[in-house]
Design brief:
Blueprint: H1 8-13, H2 16-23, E1 30-34, H3 42-49, E2 54-59, H4 62-73, E3 83-87, E4 100-106, H5 115-125, E5 126-137, H6 146-155, E6 158-165, E7 169-176
Parallel strand pairs: 1-2, 1-4, 2-3, 4-5
Antiparallel strand pairs: 5-7, 6-7
Length: 177
Amino acid sequence: MGSFLDSRLRKTVQPPDGIIKGSGIREGMTVMDLGCGPGTYTIDVARSVGKDGKVYAIDIQKKMIEKLEKKLERKENNDIVNVVPKVAGAYDLPFPDDSLDLVYMISVLEEIPDKDRALREVHRVLKKNGILSISEFLLDPDYPLKRTVRRRCERAGFFFEKSEGRFFNYTVRFQKR
């Protein structure tokens, strides 16, 4: 899966503009890319939230954060000043309660051993009416069914908002109330 994380194929089947639109990411938001990996979507999201927004790129693997930091140093990304990469796990996110507008995960939830605990932690850091967006890809060996993701998120206190997608992928969006 490692080489797939930053591949052209991934961006073809899970295009950044589709992820951004499906997640509800807008200018000025404070967003967390949970399980950001090498930052495949982070930079596109940073451009979408604009200079008044912020993207916290979180991954448990230091190696992935280092790859993202190298991307941010590239000349073509010198306009990106609103990304804060951090090494952290999903069970103890380094944010105060009710501090983020949106959290998105792309092919990440099934990688987390205690999904319920991680979702409760995401619920804690989201503001009231904050959005949790989960996108999955059919060819991921850990691909969860939409109804499984929905059940887990509702159990963690989220309210289902909408679902969209094609045969190969989907995005499910929830809201904290």
